[in-house]
Design goal:
With 251 residues, the chain is an alpha/beta fold. It has helices spanning 2-13, 24-28, 47-50, 53-58, 60-75, 81-92, 106-110, 173-183, 204-210, 237-245, and strands spanning 17-22, 95-100, 115-117, 120-127, 133-135, 160-164, 188-192, 214-219, 231-234. Helix 1 crosses helix 10 (237-245) and helix 6 (81-92) packs parallel to helix 10 (237-245).
């Protein structure tokens, strides 16, 4: 493992532009439950039952209760060493882009600046009438169900929905385009804490290689993208990334 980390350090030392993709595994190290993990159930509902347009049309109160519950968990969590290591990596590269599948805002709270959110942000809501996007979160940080019977409404009177990408919905075209434009000239791509099964993010390692970038995966387990990358580092992002950063030249 030490030898693999040394290889990653050398790759990064010889690179001028860095692209990073993060997934649920990074947030899991802060105690955020993952969709596909053992903690994926909520009141006997799975994420695939609740994170859909159909579920919201059928029972918006239930879906908002779930999102408010998730907001409470996130508000009680803190960025972990992986988040802070990514902040340090951003300081070391003039050309840097972080694309995250996570909706929890922890990268921004840690200090990351050049962030694109592929699946939206759980602390934003979008009006179904006027399409306005606003900041929206629960008032009581420790309350599991702060608004059990209240539906958030826009100033125009329209119903608000979480500004996230649900199953069956398209990702924001502009976000993906900006990410691909950067990736087309990146020297190295780090894929960190992602299952490698959610598209289109699952295609990033192959896209990066086709553009000529070196690819590094950091994950607790072997994933479908592990055979595709140049270097696969098994373990926690919160341990591996800080080890890499401390061996890179200071900004």
């Amino acid at each position: 493992m030490k030898e693999k980390i040394e290889i990653a350090i050398q790759i990064l030392k010889n690179s001028r532009s860095l692209f990073i993709l993060t997934g649920a595994g990074v947030s899991a190290e802060s105690g955020i439950p993952t969709f596909r993990g053992k903690d994926g159930l909520w009141k006997n509902y799975s994420a695939t039952d609740l994170a859909t347009p159909e579920a919201f049309r059928r029972n918006p109160e239930l879906v908002w209760e779930w999102y408010h519950w998730r907001q409470g968990i996130i508000l009680n969590a803190n960025p972990n060493p992986a988040h802070y290591a990514i902040v340090e990596l951003e300081k070391r590269y003039k050309d840097f882009l972080l694309l995250t599948q996570n909706v929890d805002n922890l990268h921004q709270r840690a200090g990351s600046k050049n962030v694109l959110e592929l699946h939206g942000n759980i602390f934003r809501a979008r009006c179904l009438e006027c399409n306005k996007i606003i900041h929206h979160q629960i008032e009581q940080k420790f309350n599991d169900s702060p608004h059990p019977n209240r539906l958030p409404k826009c100033s125009c009177g329209g119903l608000l929905r979480p500004d996230v990408v649900w199953f069956g919905e398209l990702i924001p075209e502009g976000i993906w385009q900006r990410a691909m434009e950067f990736l087309s000239s990146a020297d190295v791509a780090i894929i960190c804490g992602t299952s490698g099964v959610v598209w289109p993010a699952a295609g990033i390692p192959e896209i990066a290689k086709n553009y000529g970038a070196k690819t590094i995966e950091i994950n607790l387990e072997v994933t479908p993208i592990s055979p595709l990358v140049d270097l696969s580092l098994p373990g926690k992002a919160g341990e591996i990334l800080p080890e890499i950063v401390k061996n890179l030249p200071a900004p």
